[in-house]
Amino acid sequence: MATSAQPTTSGSQPTPTLLDFPDTRLLIDLCGEFDRNLAEVEQAFAVQIVRRGNELALTGRAKARQKASDALNAIYARLQSGRAIEPGDVTAAIRFGDADAPGDKKPSAPIDRGAFEIKTQKKSVQPRTPAQASYLRALFDHELVFGLGPAGTGKTYLAVAVAVSMFLDGHVDRIILSRPAVEAGERLGFLPGDMKDKIDPYMQPLYDALNDFLPAKQLGRLIEEKRIEIAPLAFMRGRTLSNAFVVLDEAQNATQVQMKMFLTRLGEGSRMAITGDMTQVDLPRGVTSGLIEAERILREVKGIGFTRFKASDVVRHPMVARIIEAYESIGARDA
Description:
This protein is an alpha/beta fold. The chain has helices at residues 24-31, 36-45, 62-80, 89-97, 130-141, 155-168, 195-213, 216-224, 256-263, 290-298, 318-334, and strands spanning 3-5, 9-10, 13-14, 17-20, 48-52, 55-59, 118-119, 124-125, 144-148, 174-179, 228-232, 244-248, 271-276, 304-308. 40% of the residues lie in helices and 17% in strands. It has a six-stranded parallel beta sheet with strand order 11-10-12-13-9-14, sandwiched between helices. A four-stranded antiparallel beta sheet has the order 1-4-6-5.
């Protein structure tokens, strides 16, 4: 961790905040190729950063310097732990350092991303926004969790990561992933093949998430043994899902009857995560989303966790967040 010298006032100009990073090799990685990591921090907090040997000198407003310092120290601490800086890690450090960013809830205490690291056989996953950290905490603390918000915020991906982690650690015996088989605004007609061939196109996002966490051969074997099931929501009727981690994706496309049916499948020793975006309902006109109704009915029920994501939590291409914000502003004006 870098040490810093507190700025003092000399006339009207405060002296820079100095951060000392003793390991030159790690400092090079911290700065990034052509100092692009430093440039990202500068732009995020409206500060100027100058490298002086093993020190970084930060100038700008005091609060901005402090937030930038927190982000730089978090990146350096990651490097000290032996982990590389992957795409998105600098942005994640900025988001955790900038607790006052629009749409983020200011945490009561600094959030340690490392405390929420999810380890699977192929990769480790850490939250990239405070909302993601709160969501992961809820997934471990509650038996039923709703993750609500726009696309690209990691709702389903993190739920599947926790499901795989709990399965590998022996906390659950099965993983069950489901979503409504609803077409997104276009009719595809009758699909060829057997039942699996017909439903697989709807389930592909769930397969993609699993492939990120488990080797292909192991995943294939677990699916064959029914220890991992991927099925449409309609196939859940009549079942009691015991000792399983159950994820319902795209829940905004579940009807009221389907949602009540699914919620009552929760069995002994099981956990359930329900994810959806209530602004992207693909149900026929006049049909109320079961997710909207469930959020209204269950939001005060003890033991159920709700995490709400905003456009500022999008972890895809930065353009996605701007697109979502533009649509939200149009919707607010039209309301």
